Amino acid sequence: MTNAQLASIQWGLFLSVVFLVPQLFFRQLTFRSATITTYASMLFAATFLPLQTVPPRQAVQPVPFQWVADTLRDGQIAFDQMTLNVLLFVPLGAMLLFWGGRTIGQAALIGYGVSLVIEGSQLAWANRIFDVDDLITNTTGTALGWLGALAVVKVYARATTASVTAAEHRPLAGVR
Asked: For residues 20 and 34, is the Cβ–Cβ distance under 8 A?
């Protein structure tokens, strides 16, 4: 993990606390609001912090799957960056299924939209690169998060049904 990534995590945790304390103080803190606040803080920190002081070599990277060539040229760091981009959006997909009741298509579209806003903002504000690969990986991460959440829901439903069925067929103790 690079120093910049570590700093982003620290900033994300700090921002989470800053935004969670008022919710706690005004008794508005719920599991859902804490999850969304923490995720939004971490997403903001990962995509914008720490602020870049040196401008990037290029402002826009328009070539899809450029990360593959970057991995071959630069080694593991480009692959790790792509993987982290996917993982960063997995919680969004899960939240869109659990709390938004969205379909996978809607979730992917929302993930794409959030990613597009972030990429555009990075270009205009954070002195970073607008990268088409980020749009692809972030959208993929959202879809994978939705699919993972669906798998959890299906397994939970199956386990719940199996335990209810087993309880119905179990003879009562002492009854003949």
From this structure: yes
